[in-house]
Amino acid sequence: MKRFYFLLLFSVFAVFTAFSQQTDTQTKISKAKKAECTKAPVSSSNLKNSEVTMPDDFPQFIDTGNPEQDNATFAEAKRRWIEANPEKYKALNPKMEVTPEELLEKQRKEQNK
Q1: In angstroms, what CA-CA distances link 17 with 25, 48, 104, 111?
Q2: What does pTM read for this prediction?
Q3: Where are the domains positioned within the chain?
Q4: In whole angstroms, what is the distance from residue 44 CA to residue 67 CA?
Q5: Which of 7, 23, 40, 94 is the most exposed place for a label (fewest CB within 10 A)?
Q6: C-alpha dihedral over 60, 54, 52, 92, to 10 degrees?
Q7: Confidence band, pLDDT 50/70/90 cuts, at residue 10
Q8: Residues 6+ away with beta carbon under 8 Å from 83
Q9: Where would I find the H helices in 43-112?
Q10: At CA 45, angle to CA 55 and CA 112, rounded to 5?
Q11: pLDDT in tens, 53-76
Q12: Which DSSP symbol is given to 94?
């Protein structure tokens, strides 16, 4: 009888342990994927399948292996390009209701937070 209870408790413990590890691993992976997706900048290289044709002088995202620095560098280059080329920027999305100046102001406010 003791053997039966031991096997029963061991089985329950094994099941709970297996499921808790799987859920924890899945949570870590999904959080990591979500972080990557939200930090990925938009560049001409990842718009290949869209209908938007990026101008030749639009900044290119360069992956050096340091995501924070790469994103900051690209964001700054993009901001400078938008300031220098507001008409080209507006032509990228003719349905855009926000003007390039308003977008730049919004980005500056977000950077200052």
Answers
A1: 12, 45, 50, 44
A2: 0.43
A3: 1-39, 41-113
A4: 18
A5: 94
A6: 110
A7: confident
A8: 100, 104
A9: 67-84, 86-92, 100-111
A10: 80
A11: 888 899 999 999 999 999 999 999
A12: T
